[in-house]
Amino acid sequence: MLLLLGLATLTLAPEVPPTWVRVGKGVEVQGTGRWDWHPAPAMAKATAAELDFRIEEPATQTDGQELVAFAKYSGMGNLGGYEAGLRVGEHRVWLSSKWGEAVLWSRKGGILQVVACALKPKVHHRLRLTTRGGQARFGIDGKPLLAWTTKGEPRLELGVKEGKVRFTARRPTGQEIESAPWATGFREVPWHGQIWFFDGNEPLFTLAPGNRLDHMKLRSGHRPMLYAGNFATDWATCTPSKVESYKVLKSGSTLHLQVLASDPANRSSKCVSDLQVSKDARGFYTYDHRVLTTSQSKALEWDHGDPAFLGAVGDSETLNNDAYEPPVEWFLYDLGGRRVLKTPLNHNGHYVSNAFPGAGYYGQQGGRMVAFGKALIAPVLQVPPVAPEFKQVRLDTCFWAYDEHVLYTLGQPPNGPFETRAIYTAIPRTEAERLFQTAIFNEPIGIDRKVPVYSAGIGHTETFSKEVVLASPHREFRLWAGKLDKTVGRSDKSSLRIDGPSEAGTGIGISNYMSPWPERALITCWVRCEGDQTAPSIGIRRTDTGETRIYLLGDPKVRGWQKAEIVADFLANVPIAMVTFRNAGAGTVWFDDFKIQPAPPNAVATKPHRPAASAVLSWTAEDAAFAEDASGNGHAGKLFNVKHAQEDGLEFWSFGGRDSYAWPLPSPALDMAPPYTLDFDLRPHSEGPLIAYYFQFHFDLVRKGDRLAIEYRNGREVATSEPAVTPGKWQKIRIVALPDSIEFFVDGKSYGRRAAQVKAADWTLYQSGSWHRHPTFFGNGPGDLQYPPDFAACLKADVRSVRIARGR
């Protein structure tokens, strides 16, 4: 299709989509909610385009602006509330009557300019664009709004997103657009219902809900590369995430912002943050961030900001803007002239170093960390020398999220307010590269360890044959659990083998530099089953909303390779989805030749597996190899260091404590949303966990004299029964969890109803890369997920059955 500008009529080619309809001398377009761009002839230098523009139906979407920049930043190109726009080369102009603004956006810089304009529905507006001498200027109704630099001969395209609009071409008048006005200096701007701070017309950062500094740009004209908490936290009793008030103490050439915040669950824990922002002659910003914390917490270690970098996700201005490249691949720890250590980054595990005293240990003198990769700017996190009350400051990286814990260690519990500080800025890549060349490799434990990874992306076939060195920069997600079987394959001699009950998860999408998921995905997978008990399926989870669906694959009774096809229709605009290859039985399943591609327009969506009506999990100790789930939800349990025995004709599992536990295959049904009921038929021999969701909640048996009590822990919530459980005796324990209380029963008798705010669990958190975030019974362990074990507390007990049901 061609839209010929400069003519009295818009000329449409025969292949024009049905949403673009001829109306008189123009064209009327119905928006679909996503940008739809169509080209006009290439514009030579010193040319102009003019159009009549009328909004027939206004935009209705509220927004879509993400608040966590590093996780899903690419969606910033799809904000809600815009009817139409122009695309000139790599720049886009968005127009909105809802927000009353014109926006200049580019892929490398994100939102570059925001200027108010009075667009109104049912009113004719004249749009004018000129490009002259590498300078583009845009105005509406004779008023200049936007100006920017162009390269080469940019191609012009018209775009429509929401509502209904009409374009009519006009002959250019030849009148030059005056230079667009440009606001100067730092200033506060209420924007899209949030508190934003601009540098001139360019959004710089936002004070986001949860008391976070988000979408922080480190250089003018570049995409945001950082977000940080506007507080220090002990991650237990003091997280001042509620903004009580804020003041802009200074604006203009510099910005000085002061914020008072408190912990919503503990108002005595509060902080005053002091942020000063400046810009140097090269356009680099510096954020000097101080936090004065007041808390009754006895914690010695405090995390300042937990800043996260736009590392393995999104795109920025990189060495090759025509392809997804990782802006950050290495963290360079500059120990103040003593040495520089470099640590490779990827999605795939925590980094345990052999270095002394460790890459990010700065002691009391402080230091800096430089994030280095393909981006043309390198973010810098600097910690100054610490105050005398601190023993040290160190940086600790969570590799699953590319966030850097800035950990201040006090010599003794706080006795009054204390101040922590971090400075965020950036340097040119060339400067960071010189530092990289002199850096010493931060050698990890297990330097040669290789892990299997998913590498196919969208539209390609995954043959499950690639491994990478874990201690290397790489963009692929690893396959957690499972193994690459180099002896069995459908099209080659390699496949993914899952010895059940188990599953292997991986991430797929643009967050690991693959193509984005299609709106409707046709998923093809070949499976092969062996053994009497297999149950192949795949689970798909949106990382932005948490929505998860599980699809059954093939017939477990069929031997040989089977082809399974699924049409998934819930993944539109998802930046990344977690895919798990599951085997909920005790046999073996091989997965091979897995492919994701756009589904045909007439393809019918596949119905996912639906959870049972009331039963969530039902185990009975009838098998020594695994815990078969009779609920129908596929929550089979893998047993680790568990013995199978009989007594008085009844079978039971014997959990020996320390490294003995059961690992259930999770699903959306295992969210433990109240109301629910837990039933255990067991004979305990020690204290320890009944079920552990680790960071989320625990139900434990705790010693009270010569007996045991049942205790619920959920962060700060603690609810404990009377000491009613007798060690060494078979007993039936029932726990009834309601949204606001928990009641504990032993052998049918109530031993206390306690008030508690019972919350549902996110059963998918373990997929983010930390073993301690998934559920286990009777102990804490990594299951098949290849994480370091942590057997700090396991229950020694004999168990006949475990059941979870919805309701009371």
Can you tell me about this structure?
- Helix content is 2%, strand content 48%.
- It has 2 helices and 62 strands.
- The strands form 11 sheets. It has a 10-stranded mixed sheet with strand order 20-21-22-23-32-29-28-26-27-33, with helices on one face.
Topology:
Layout lengths: L19 E4 L2 E5 L5 E4 L7 E11 L11 H4 L11 E5 L2 E6 L4 E6 L3 E7 L7 E9 L2 E6 L2 E7 L6 E5 L3 E7 L15 E6 L2 E6 L2 E7 L3 E5 L9 E4 L2 E2 L8 E9 L4 E9 L2 E14 L5 E10 L6 E4 L3 E2 L20 E5 L5 E5 L22 E6 L4 E7 L6 E9 L4 E8 L7 E11 H10 L1 E2 L8 E5 L6 E2 L4 E3 L7 E2 L4 E3 L9 E5 L2 E8 L11 E10 L5 E7 L5 E5 L9 E7 L7 E8 L4 E11 L16 E6 L5 E2 L9 E4 L1 E6 L2 E7 L4 E4 L11 E9 L3 E5 L5 E7 L2 E8 L2 E4 L10 E8 L2 E6 L2 E7 L20 E2 L18 E11 L2
Shape: globular
Distance between the termini: 62 Å
Q: Which regions contain 5 or more consecutive residues with pLDDT less than 50?
A: 1-9, 41-46, 65-77, 311-316, 768-772
Main sheet summary:
10 strands, mixed
Name the beta content range. over 45%
Output the strand order for the largest sheet. 20-21-22-23-32-29-28-26-27-33
Number of helices: 2
Average pLDDT level: 84
Rg of Cα set: 29 Å
Secondary structure: number of strands: 62
Helix content: under 10%
**Which secondary-structure class do the elements indicate?**
mainly beta
